[in-house]
Design brief:
The protein is an alpha/beta fold and 382 residues long. Helices cover 51% and strands 10% of the residues. A six-stranded mixed sheet has the order 1-2-3-5-7-10, sandwiched between helices. Strands 4-6-8-9 form a four-stranded mixed sheet. Keywords: Branched-chain amino acid catabolism, Hydrolase, Mitochondrion. Pfam families: ECH_2.
Length: 382
């Protein structure tokens, strides 16, 4: 056999092997629910579980974190873009069902998922490269954690934002204790306790998004961003500003909560959740009655934990908030309301949870205090 034939055969085998490796890498990315690509000057993260509304699971976290750290130290990568596939959602939250099943049997995922998710949230918050989250569609819970701590968050008319955790016996985690109390007035506490949903341009008006761009302009925006040459944060900001200035959709309508902002500040200013409920009942307006009714459906334990979380978080760094929230996550795993909330809202869907304790008055200060206690060696560390 000639040398030429041998060389050709070797090259063919090498090519096949490379294709197999690349194929495996791509399929492992697809299997993990996330695509990681270098496009122009950008590292691009695509959350790719559209049938599950891009809900964040452990494999996704484990793929995103190391790649984000690589891009952060890579001289060829200037910006990071994160987006959701499928058009319906950026990310509808964490994979709560998997965590619930793990928590019931004491499996490690109930600890590991929160630990790794919060570590990723911190990496996003401290990322030295401009981080741009394109939050079109449903953006809740874990999806907020993947976006809100980044430098730029771009909402569209399809964006639907909420932190609905008190309805499932949890609390607005993923750094909610950091960003929510930094919104205007008592808006963050209102959103945290009630799970109120913000849509479209209102997500920016509330301060959750930094920009609003019409969804039809997003592909063009993405192309302009990845084609930038060694962009600074100011360069990115200029591009986003220009697209926002071209987006007039919904600009003529006032902020959905505009007429209620002074009411929210007044009614949600109290030294306890019980005080807030009393304020709402005493006020008697349609808005106040609606909020009182909403709070009556939420886990009393979750409401008290959330109130205390935001009070504390207002004076803490993002890292310290995440350490606190990890303690709270494990307290919820030890309790019963989380499992009952998930059963009621996500599994049986009867929307009729049996909370324990069932009233705010029965949730003792001692039990709330315990939720914030150090986990010792198991505390989250950065």
């Amino acid at each position: 056999m000639s040398l030429t034939v041998l060389t050709s055969a070797y090259r063919l085998r090498t090519l096949c092997r490379l294709q197999r490796i690349q194929g495996h890498m791509m399929s492992s990315q697809v299997d993990s629910g996330v695509l990681l690509e270098k496009v122009g000057c950008a590292g691009v993260i695509t959350l790719n579980r559209p049938k599950a509304l891009n809900a964040l699971n452990m494999p996704m976290v484990q793929h995103i974190y190391p790649q984000l750290k690589k891009w952060e130290s890579d001289d060829e990568t200037d910006i990071v873009i994160i987006r959701g596939a499928g058009g319906k959602a950026f990310c509808a939250g964490g994979d709560i069902r998997a965590v619930t099943e793990a928590g019931k049997v004491g499996a490690p995922l109930a600890e590991d998922f929160f630990r790794e998710e919060y570590t990723l949230n911190n990496a996003i918050g401290t990322c030295r490269k401009p981080y741009i989250a394109l939050i079109g569609g449903i953006t809740m819970g874990g999806g907020v954690g993947l976006s809100v701590h980044g430098r730029f968050r771009v909402a569209t008319e399809k964006t639907l934002f909420a932190m609905p955790e008190t309805a499932i016996g949890l609390f607005p985690d993923v750094g909610g204790g950091y960003f929510l109390p930094r919104l205007q007035g008592q808006l963050g506490l209102f959103l945290a306790l009630t799970g109120f949903r913000l849509k479209g341009r209102d997500v920016q008006r509330a301060g959750v998004a930094t920009h609003f761009v019409e969804s039809e302009k997003i592909p063009e925006l993405e192309k302009e961003l990845v084609d930038l040459k060694s962009p600074s944060a100011e360069d990115v900001s200029r591009v986003l500003d220009s697209y926002q200035n071209q987006s007039a959709l919904g600009a003529d309508k006032p902020f959905v909560l505009e007429q209620h902002m002074s009411d929210i500040d007044r009614l949600f200013s109290s030294s306890s959740v019980e005080g807030i409920v009393q304020n709402l009942k005493a006020d008697g307006s349609e808005f106040a009655n609606t909020q009182a009714k909403t709070l009556s459906r939420m886990s009393p334990t979750s409401l008290k934990i959330t109130y205390r979380q935001l009070q504390a978080g207002a004076a803490l760094s993002l890292q310290d908030v995440l350490v606190m929230e990890y303690r709270l996550s494990q307290a919820c795993m030890r309790g019963c309301d989380f499992y009952e909330g998930v059963r009621s809202v996500l599994i049986d869907k009867d929307q009729n949870p049996k909370w324990n304790p069932s009233t705010l008055e029965e949730v003792s200060e001692e039990s709330v205090e315990q939720c914030f206690s150090s986990l010792g060696e198991k505390d989250l560390k950065f």
